[in-house]
Amino acid sequence: MNKHLIRVIVICIVAVTALVLVSCKDTRSLSFDNDTYIIYLDTAPSLKPGVSVKPAKNDYTLSVRNDTIAKVESDGQTLKGLSEGITVLTAVSGEKQATATLIVYAVTPSDPTPSDPEHDGKFVVEFITEVGAIPNQYIEPNGYATRPEDPSRPGYRIYAWYTDAELKNAFDFSTPINGDLRLYAGWGEAEAEFEYGNIEIDGTTYYGITGLKTPHVRYNELSIPQTDPEGTEIRAIGPRAFADMPALETVTISSNLRYIDQYAFVNCTKLTTVTFPHSSIGSGVTTIGEGAFGNCQSLTSINLPSSLRTVGSEAFAKCYALKSIALPSSLKTIPSQAFAYSGLESVDLTHVTSIGMRAFWGALDLATITAPTALARLESEAFRFTAWLNKAAPSGGNVAYLGTTLVYCYPASHIDVIVRSDTTLIANQAFYGNTAKTPTWEQIKSDKYTEPTLERTLQYGFIRLPATPVPRGDYAFQTEKDAIKPDLVVAETAIAAYAESSYYGKSATPEIMDRVYYSRTLNNLSVLLRATTPPAEGFANRYNVIIERYRGSAETLDVKSMLETDFGLGKYYTVTRIHQGAFTSLPSLKQITLPHRIGLIDSFAFNALTALEKIFIRWETLENDDWSVKSGQLADNCFSISGANAASWKIFVPTARLNSYRNFWTRVPGTITRFQPYD
């Protein structure tokens, strides 16, 4: 054989052998033979736990997390118990590690074992404490264990039993037993021990409680002390100090406390009662922070102190069980979402001066509200989705009032909104959503927030305001997506005041002035005139006119002539709209003459005219007049003519523009056949 080849083979064999020898030194697996080991100090104070290690010749070391409960003897593999308790046992070999639970008892239990004939077919429930022994319970399949009495341990109590030594999974004694079970005692101080420190609130530092020393303990009740163990007064509860306590049911507040910071008790879902002491001027809680009692779903009773000045947003949001609450007269502001989705059925807001956005949003059962006497600000949607709002509008009306505050305008098609003369405030965005999808009361009551499409409300409507400007929130008259703004109708003497008050949330501009009108009636014809100075020749400053209603009994009516002569508008004007019902139920009316500059003829503007034969559109060409037929629009059913002439009435237009009218006025029933030319 080639000497070179032999040399290569020998080198490979040596390398493989060395690799095997090295790999044999690494531990491939390591585990304890049992999950739990028990030492009884009175009978067997030492034990050697079983440890499996591969390769078997590899060594391992033991350690105990709490060396006051047990220690490792000099051989490195034997444990000696020192005092009662539970700790973690760790074995290490190379890079491998394994853990087990070590329990040390003072005495060996003398109760019978499950192998005794008396307990055949039953499951054993074992109770692990750190002091003394609790007898095992033997339970028939699907039976229930009984919570045992706490063993004696001065200053301590068992708050809950757990299925794991780490005290993470609490056991419910209403759970059927279907296997052997070991339960671990969750000890805690007989009264909660607190952690203390400085808490900064709004730039000021206060001394108070920052949390619990034993947060795992399932406390049922907390009593906030006056001082810490050294005698320092406690002024505040810190942020999230007691958040997410699943068993907490009652809280008692001390008289020294001034501040409850944000989210202090959030998500305490079983909390039912919070008790504040009687407070006088200069004492008691003044501030409850943002979300402090948020999602306390079982809260039914809380007596807010007379010292309270401020509550934060969402302070009582999602308190579903909170049916009533007495707001102290010192509390002037209800912030955003403070009681959103709460269970409130009634609330007295007599002393409140400001209510934030969505303050009571989704409080479905809130049906009774005592109105504030001096409300100065009401933010948007404060009472949306409440029983009160859905019943607040008077019969036949479409606005909801809280005292003298206009809260909301209900969506309804083509309806003018009349703001009461005694109105003292208009809520922010009171008219917002009137062109949007809006839920009905039935859908809200069934807790389904689906939103069917309703016809747009103020697309052709007016808001009629009192003669004196009324305070209102920003963008009070804003509509959904600000797509369509209603027109404001005010007293002629109040035009300048409303415009200067920025009623659209903006500074007064020509655009805003275009939407402010005043009313005037002559010869049975009511019109709205835009707030502007009389126009000069030409259309730069022309009048804008809305025809509201004719209440006369004439057979022939020349509206064009009435506007130019009776109302003194001359020739330079535009009829921006003929309002719904402007000419309705006029049994004698046979002929109407209209100007050609008409922006919109509203639905049912001409309605129930049983004698109508002709409508004349009188065209007149003026300097700088860029009006064309396509500038006008017709709403559905704008000509709803009935009676004997329903099929024969005609619209007469200038011959030169006949085709234009036929092309652009497409919604008139029988469009083409209605139009007739004249010269």
Automatic annotation (TrEMBL):
Signal peptide: none annotated. SUPFAM superfamilies: L domain-like (SSF52058). GO terms for cellular component: cell envelope. InterPro entries: InlB-like_B-rpt (IPR013378), Listeria/Bacterioides_rpt_sf (IPR042229), LRR_5 (IPR026906), LRR_dom_sf (IPR032675), Surface_bspA-like (IPR053139). PANTHER family: IG-LIKE DOMAIN-CONTAINING PROTEIN (PTHR45661:SF3), SURFACE ANTIGEN (PTHR45661). It comes from Candidatus Stercoripulliclostridium merdipullorum. It comes from the Bacteria. It is found in: Cell envelope. This is Leucine-rich repeat protein. Pfam families: Flg_new, LRR_5. Gene3D superfamilies: 3.40.50.12480, Listeria-Bacteroides repeat domain (2.60.40.4270), Ribonuclease Inhibitor (3.80.10.10). Its main location: other.
